[in-house]
Write a structure and sequence with these properties.
Blueprint: H1 2-9, H2 19-43, E1 56-61, H3 69-82, E2 87-91, E3 103-106, H4 115-118, H5 120-128, E4 134-136, H6 140-151, E5 155-159, E6 171-177, E7 205-209, H7 219-228, E8 232-244, E9 250-251, H8 253-256, E10 260-265, H9 270-279, E11 283-289, H10 298-310, E12 315-319, H11 320-324, H12 330-333, E13 336-346, H13 350-359
Parallel strand pairs: 1-5, 1-6, 2-4, 2-5, 6-7, 7-8, 10-11, 10-12, 12-13
Antiparallel strand pairs: 3-4, 8-9, 8-13
Length: about 375
């Protein structure tokens, strides 16, 4: 993944010739053509979107990698429930070993699938969202109908669905990382863009994420928002606590100050996790990076333990999302802490809440 990140971080401004980048750029032109044709077919109603009998909210992005969709989905589901809605979350279930067309991860009261069977993100959402069904499957039309018919859902939240155009959505929330919202401006595989930038015209609103980690104001996003009269909201990812891996106890953020930590992560933006730890006054004395959605093996965890012993660390820490992929290693979970991150709309969440409720025909 490091090699891909280096390529995707290169915007071509150094003008240095690279056979690899030239080849990837050629493939990206083909990919762009395919995506353009697909979008054209939907835009001209040759491919038709299916409208379900309740509102659908999509939470997605235009780039590959972590923009913070999972914390956003959790915030959105909780807000809707507090406002009297009966939301359900639909996810593709990336990384799941379950091939069923419909997989009930949680019925709102009980978690009915393992982390491996659900995928790490749906499993994390199931752990975080009491009273809200979580359903995975490749066809959101089927999972959406299941949520409505089996659980009485009156609003559906589609996780990572901006490019999934088979289902009509009433609200398209597009998350953009505040540091590099459009990646290097290149399409896959030369860059991290899933679609051309013009696809952002489908967005109902933009949410800039991790604004607490970046002082940049992106001119391109400001222009896009102004051209389409699209509102832009800002958010921050705030650490709230360190949870024991088996969820038996937790440490406050103040408890972490000065701690010598052996840290590891297998997420799309691991440096963001490290930056957060350092901001809490933690001494990161050992740091291991794994690929996004990595499924850990016993030897890798033994190596982490060895790093802790060798460096005389106080605790081992990883992300809560990584913790979902460690459920089978119960002994190891008892030894580590997971950093819980939550989305905060800044400076005031009422702006986004009122926008969403207005779109749903309800005032807060």
């Amino acid at each position: 993944m490091d090699n891909w990140q280096r390529i995707w971080n290169d915007d071509g401004s150094n003008n240095r010739y690279s056979p690899t980048k030239t080849l990837l750029y050629a493939f990206s032109l083909l990919y762009r053509l395919i995506i353009h044709l697909r979008n054209w077919l939907y835009d001209h109603n040759i491919f038709r979107e299916v409208k379900l009998p309740c509102p659908v909210i999509s939470v997605g992005n235009i780039t590959v990698g972590g923009t913070g969709k999972t914390p956003c989905v959790i915030w959105l589901a909780r807000m809707l429930r507090e406002q009297g809605f009966k939301p359900a979350v639909l996810s593709r279930g990336y990384g799941s070993i379950n091939s069923s067309p419909v997989n009930i991860v949680s019925d709102g009261n009980h978690i009915l699938a393992s982390s491996a069977g659900a995928g790490d993100e749906p499993y994390l959402m199931a752990r975080s969202l009491q009273g809200i069904p979580i359903i995975t499957g490749p066809q959101r039309i089927l999972t959406g109908k299941t949520a409505i018919n089996s659980f009485g859902a009156d609003v559906l939240i589609c996780d990572d669905a901006f490019q999934h155009r088979q289902i009509f959505r009433d609200i398209n929330l597009v998350l953009l990382d505040s540091e590099k919202p459009l990646g290097n401006g290149q399409m896959l595989p030369r860059g991290s863009l899933r679609e051309p930038i013009t696809a952002l015209s489908r967005a109902s609103a933009f949410i800039l994420t991790r604004t607490n980690e970046s002082a940049k104001t992106n001119v391109a996003i400001a222009k896009l928002a102004a051209a389409g009269n699209t509102p832009v909201f800002k958010s921050a990812h705030r650490p709230v606590a360190a949870i024991k891996g088996d969820y038996s106890r937790q440490l406050s953020l103040a408890d972490l100050q000065g701690k010598k930590v052996c840290a590891f992560a297998g997420i799309a933006q691991p440096e963001s996790f490290k930056k957060t730890l350092l901001s809490l006054g933690v001494q990161v004395i050992s740091w291991d990076i794994f690929p996004d959605h990595h499924r850990y093996c016993l030897q890798e965890l033994k190596n982490v333990r060895h790093n802790m012993s060798k460096n005389n660390a106080d605790i081992i820490m990883t992300t809560e999302k990584d913790g979902m992929r460690l459920q089978e290693f119960t002994e190891f979970l008892n030894e580590i802490y997971l950093l819980r991150i939550e989305l905060e709309i800044v400076p005031d969440e009422n702006s986004l809440k009122n926008f969403l409720l207005g779109k749903l025909g309800k005032t807060g």
